[in-house]
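Backbone geometry tokens:
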Amino acid sequence: MNLRNFLIACLVLGALGWWYSSHSPRKVSAPGGVSTTAGCPLPPLVNAGEAPLQSDVPASMPPFALNAATLQPLAGFSIEARVLSREDYSLGREADLSPTDLALGWKTMRDEAVLSQLDISQSSRWYNYRWEDQPPLPPGEIAQNSANMHMIPASDAVADALAHVGKGDSVRIDGWLVEARAPDGWRWRSSTTREDTGGGACEVVYVCGITRL
């Protein structure tokens, strides 16, 4: 190896080391405010292998008061799914709450035979999929069994667990679908159905717990 190639290799290894270090922008932390497990009670939990479970919000549950915004719970949310794609964000107002989006698939959208025929990507808080010739599933079934979800970690422990989740992982996520409300009138509202597509169809999830399965 000549000197030029050696220096290039050192630079690449150094960049990789920085990206996965504690100083990397990839590392995420919980937004300030309510940040303990006690402050993020678990909703009813989905059974393994079932579609995402959405549940009612207890009448006594207060909003989650964070520094960037107050989160009004809209529904309990529990899901076991496969990570189809992951995208991290550091710019934009939404990133103050949610540093990571996960595109998740459940039921037939966990099947490798299906996913191998789809080109899946994320950008600008959107989740996109494409196929060649014929779709591996009816398009409506793809849409109903997958979604892009904005993750708001409720604690640094949740943020650390989220940082280790990647494409292809199977995960369990338990928390609350929320609407973020800032004092200046800015709002960011979660979808509360798995049937919608397009603008406003993403889930905004205040994550009480996340586990790789």
The CA atoms of residues 126 and 198 lie 9 Å apart. DSSP finds four helices and ten strands in the chain.
